[in-house]
Amino acid sequence: MKRFGGNPAVDGATFAVEEGTITALIGPNGAGKTTCFHCISGFLRLDGGTIEFAGASIARLSPPAIVRRGLVRTFQIPQELSSMTVLENCMLGAGAQRGERPWEPLFRAKRVACEERAHEAHAREMLRLVTLDELAHERAGNLSGGQKKLLELARALIARPKLVLLDEPAAGVNPTLALQLVDHIRRLQRELSVTFLIIEHNMEVVTRLTDTVVVMSAGRVLTEGAPSAVMADPAVQDAYLGSQYR
Amino acid sequence: MDLFAIDLIVLVTFGGAVNWTVGFLTTVAIFGIVALGLNLQWGYTGVFNFGVVAFFMVGAYTSALLTLPHPDAVMVTPSGAEVTGVLDYAGGFGLPVPVGWLAGMGAAGALALIVGLPTLRLRHDFLAIATIGIAAILRSIANSIEGLVNRSSGLSGIPRFLDELASGEDYRWVLLGIALLMLIVVYLALQRTVDSPWGRVLRAIRENEDTAKAAGKNTVSFRMQSFVLGGMIMGLGGAIFAHRFGAIAPTSFSDLLGTFLIWAMLMVGGSGNNRGALLGALLVGFFWFGTPLIQEDLPDFLGNRVFMIRQLVIGLLIVVFVVARPQGILPERRRVSRFVSDPDSAGGRWASLRARFAGSGPRSSPEA
Ligand SMILES: Nc1ncnc2c1ncn2[C@@H]1O[C@H](COP(=O)(O)OP(=O)(O)OP(=O)(O)O)[C@@H](O)[C@H]1O
Ligand SMILES: [Mg+2]
């Protein structure tokens, strides 16, 4: 549960994400989906309730501590490091880097260089995946809106996460590429059994990608189930369009 | 007591000019070290420190107290008289100067830790507010506590470093050499440390702390590391300063000189670029310490007000640069890290060339 000045944004939203599956979190604008992500990833303190990940409570952990457990999120509004390069933005996401201790680059330059090369190769691979490899040395601030969303995805995936929260990853991304990314996310889920929780308004992406759909409305979970069943539910259509349009 | 008055010898002779330049460059080297410390905090990490002079002061006093002889020891004044117990201070361990410098760095780092622990995890402005106060607090402690640092009369007779190398006037060359050497060591060590994954996290925090957190970085810890290391570098500057003049007092550590001027150096030269910080130290330093030299040649209405006007100009410089050229004269270079070659920038090409000539060192590019 999360309140903003007394107004509950997420209130009694209970749902579970099965390990190794892809779950969609959908709902009308302002339903509290992004707020849910903020709470799960530790960016917002809960006002009540619990969050469990891999059998342990993470409700009181800080965002970096949650990331270290393998739970990574992206932002709905891209939070790129605008004066840094695309490659740097991506490499930042790589977890547990030795070179991030100040004495290592000073006294163990060789080891750090070796590690950096590996991270660079990994980052370039991720950038190729989201078709940003040509722009590796461009300032991230110069990217288009859609490219920034792709960079968010690359930064999340380079951390080799167990569970990824993607906030509207396909928003602003061209539909062909969006479908390619859908395929890739499927592959990651199948081959590395990475779990995904995805907020998405694009119903084509939702139906092609997800095993389970959780529908939120006004801070609560309205219903959940297989994509086709959920879409056919009149209550869901009500929530999206308002009953007067039926 | 304006210690810099020592440097303000009017340039009437060639010898005077040389002496002035040597003294000036020594000062620039010391201020350059402090500017590098601030650049680490503000330029790289975006940690706001408006109490630079406090760290400088702690470094100076710590090194002085450790290297001075015991206050009851017999001291020989310049006139040859033997005196004892004229200065009233704590410590006086007569330790070697380098030990004093290391301790000065340590004490300044400890101060950063004490100030940073309660404030660095809060909103950014809290640290700024806290740092504004510490210099004033430290000065008033120095002024008021009996038997600590000889109160407002200050400490004198702080031993010189390597003074057996040269005597009298020639010692200023030794001083210049020491100051420049320390500057180079700090610069090179910083470059190596910052041009790395560690520096990348610092810059990420400066750009967008949420992104750094989402990337799994413990941003509070990184900001603390940067704040403490920067404070230690400032402390080293202060320690060198104390041994250079041999005498320090609370008035040696004004906010104007020790904080404001350093900020001007960084803003003018280019924050986020260590070379920029050094260029700024040279340019702003030349303006600050050079203006009194031309005082006599200026029309009276200016000449009488030189000291006031240069303060005004420094303030204006900061404002003009923040508004019109926030990146400073030398903007930050865009580079992934020195471990990754960057084909787009001249820096990357140079690095890979250098790597090819230097053989396979840690600098070699991934392709090499
Ligand atoms: N920082 C905040 N302060 C106050 N209210 C907020 C804040 N963040 C979100 N809200 C409110 O909480 C509710 C849920 O917002 P949220 O961003 O979670 O919606 P969403 O489901 O992600 O919507 P969208 O599909 O438009 O992204 C909204 O009514 C919003 O106005
Ligand atoms: Mg949202």
Structural features:
heterodimer; A: alpha/beta; 6-stranded mixed sheet; 17% strand; B: 368 residues; ABC transporter involved in vitamin B12 uptake, BtuC; two-stranded antiparallel sheet; 4 strands; disordered N terminus; disordered C terminus; binds adenosine-5'-triphosphate; binds magnesium ion
Description:
The complex is a heterodimer of chains A (246) and B (368). Chain A has a single domain, classed as P-loop containing nucleotide triphosphate hydrolases (Rossmann fold), CATH 3.40.50.300. With 246 residues, chain A is α/β, with parallel strands linked by helices. The mean pLDDT of chain A is 86. In chain A, helix 3 packs parallel to helix 6. In chain A, the strands form three sheets. Chain A has a six-stranded mixed beta sheet, with helices on both faces. In chain A, a hairpin with a 2-residue loop joins strand 1 and strand 2. The relative contact order of chain A is 0.18. Chain B is mainly alpha-helical and 368 residues long. Chain B has two domains: 325 residues, Orthogonal Bundle (ABC transporter involved in vitamin B12 uptake, BtuC); 35 residues, no CATH class. Chain B is 62% helix and 3% strand. In chain B, strands 1-2 form a two-stranded antiparallel sheet. Chain B has a two-stranded antiparallel ribbon with strand order 3-4. In chain B, helix 9 packs across helix 10. The N terminus and C terminus of chain B are likely disordered. The interface between A and B is large, with 51 and 40 residues.
